[in-house]
Amino acid sequence: MTPYVADPVYLNGQFKPLAEAGISPLDRGFLYGDGVYEVIPVYSRRAFRIDEHLKRLQATLDGIQLANPLSASDWKDVVLRLIDEAPWEDQSIYLQVTRGADDKRDHAFPPPSVAPTAFAFSSPLVTTPADIRAKGVSAITVPDLRWSRCDLKVISLLANVLARQQAVEQGCAEALLIRDGFMKEGAASNIFIVKDGVLCAPPKTHLMLPGITYDVILELAKFHGQPVKIAEIEETELRAADEVWMTSSTKEILAITTLDGHPVGTGKPGPLAGQMWQWYQDFKNTVMRKG
Ligand code: PDD
Q: Is 0.85 surpassed by the pTM of this model?
């Protein structure tokens, strides 16, 4: 157990302390980044939208032609046990499946006898402190150097890692990825903008991860009668936005108030960011905490 990873973790059918969980250095996750993952938020010990997360896991596995080692109901049992044994009420469950370890290194798939590696653990869900939320965070824009299947939640995240590191080195919370003049998403979040009272988000394409939080925000907007526009966001529109938000299962909704050193809108979190955050909290406390 560490402050960030609860014991036990799950590895290939067994629950064991993190310190005893080992995999082969020939694992294709290690050699090739050949695997997939999910991050599921847990509120009051209830996994939020677990069916949707497991559906996205399956879609990603299908996308890389890897059989799911567990059924949805077996994954749920694993997640329930991890939640039960972790010391925190609000958690973040990490699931990962790789194409396993062959006895040699070859790019092509290993024979069917090689079993996938399945790994899962719980961490505490750390939400953004109120003072940071009240000020908003800074972000930079960087070229989107990822491959063309960004809709798949794969563990090969090097382009995201390098983008995020550039942000960190400039004292920023996120890097916004620009491809062919359009803003696709953040290195580890989806991005919304607000212009003249309309909430705008890029459509789900192969070039963006379909966020579970993204869906929740659009549902909340619809429920509350908030005008929404789903369309590609040009870099120029991003820079002229009244508000810019980053969203994810762990960050929830966080206003970006400085972009590439320039203020976004007034330079303070906008009214719709505050409103959506409140709707999200209300939803969290009434629905999410029930699973
Ligand atoms: N990241 N886009 C990217 C590239 C992401 O990595 C994430 C989440 C999202 C938001 O997806 P969701 O709302 O389902 O969390 C969008 C997770 C949290 C991570 O990599 O840790």
A: yes
